[in-house]
Amino acid sequence: MSDIEIRDDRAAGRLEARADGEVVGRIEYFVLEAPERALVPVHTVVEPAHEGKGIAGSLARELYTMARGEGVTVAPLCPYVVKWAARHPEEAPAADPELLRAAKEWLVAHPGRF
User: Are 1 and 21 in contact (CB under 8 A)?
Assistant: First the structure.
């Protein structure tokens, strides 16, 4: 297998991991605008044939790197990203509870999005 390339498809709300031109994993997310701008990961998927290769962790790390580069927070709702962040607090600062509440409210208000 070739190297994994990670690409952000902001318009689609997907951070994709690709190998040999094929999407082998992704984090689905949205951009929250208020009470502050944040990236909100909702779902992480790795194709079964590619599980156990660190793809999900690479995607989570890249999401936090993107957020840091944009000067925004990550407000994780995805259970995998929540666990990853807890294991990597030096890379994944905790989101304010108010921001997480607002992210959950946005998700409830947009039921067909994910």
Answer: no
pLDDT at residue 40, rounded to an integer:
98
Residue 91 CA to residue 65 CA, distance in Å, equals 8
Q: Do residues 50 and 2 touch, judged by C-beta distance below 8 A? A: no
Q: pLDDT tens across 60-86, in order? A: 999 999 999 999 999 999 999 999 999
pTM, full prediction: 0.93
Report the percentage of the chain scoring pLDDT > 70: 98
Question: What is the spatial distance between Cα 34 and Cα 32, in angstroms, rounded to a whole number?
Answer: 6
